[in-house]
């Protein structure tokens, strides 16, 4: 492996990838999951990478509570829904955004914000029920 003389895009991505692999080993030892949060930032001399560690069981419980808060009968993470003839997948719920609390991702990986009612009316999984709007 050669030394890095300047921090460019390729070097920053390499550092982020190697760091995540090393942190995944550490996280697995303690029963955690690790994900890169945000993008890798770099300039000529340094790179900044942010990682988040989570307890999987508690994260799942929080997602279920968030989904119930938004009026859904169970966790909707990963569920597919249709909007304007295009298929999206639920990838995140942000209760800090009351108007558009659900983040959906299309097949190309582009993320969009959606309201709970929009997602509820387009859900492809018929077993998930929607009781109405958020309970705030």
Chain-wise SSE layout:
Layout: H1 9-29, E1 33-36, E2 41-42, E3 47-48, E4 51-54, H2 56-69, E5 80-83, E6 86-93, E7 102-105, E8 111-114, H3 116-122
Antiparallel strand pairs: 1-4, 2-3, 5-6, 6-7, 7-8
What's a quick, concise take on this entry?
This protein is 31% helix and 24% strand. It contains three helices and eight strands.
Description:
The chain is 31% helix and 24% strand. By secondary structure, it is an alpha+beta fold. The protein folds into two domains: 9-54, no CATH class; 59-122, SH3 type barrels (Roll), CATH 2.30.30. The strands form three sheets. A four-stranded antiparallel β-sheet has the order 5-6-7-8. A hairpin with a 4-residue loop joins strand 2 and strand 3. The longest helix has 21 residues, at 9-29. The chain is elongated and about 55 Å long. The protein starts with 8 loop residues before the first helix and ends in a 14-residue tail after the last helix.
């Amino acid at each position: 492996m050669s030394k890095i003389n300047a921090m460019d895009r390729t070097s920053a991505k390499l550092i982020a990838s190697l760091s995540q692999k090393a942190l995944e080993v550490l996280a697995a030892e303690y029963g955690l999951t690790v994900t890169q949060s945000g993008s890798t930032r770099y300039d000529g001399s340094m790179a900044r990478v942010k990682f988040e560690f989570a307890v999987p069981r508690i994260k799942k419980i929080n997602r279920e509570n968030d989904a119930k808060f938004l009026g859904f009968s169970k966790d909707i993470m990963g569920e597919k829904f249709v909007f304007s003839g295009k298929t999206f997948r639920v990838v995140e719920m942000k209760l800090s955004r009351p108007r558009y609390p659900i983040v959906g991702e299309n097949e190309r990986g582009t993320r969009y914000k959606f309201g709970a009612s929009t997602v509820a009316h387009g859900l492809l999984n018929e077993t998930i029920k929607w009781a109405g709007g958020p309970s705030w």
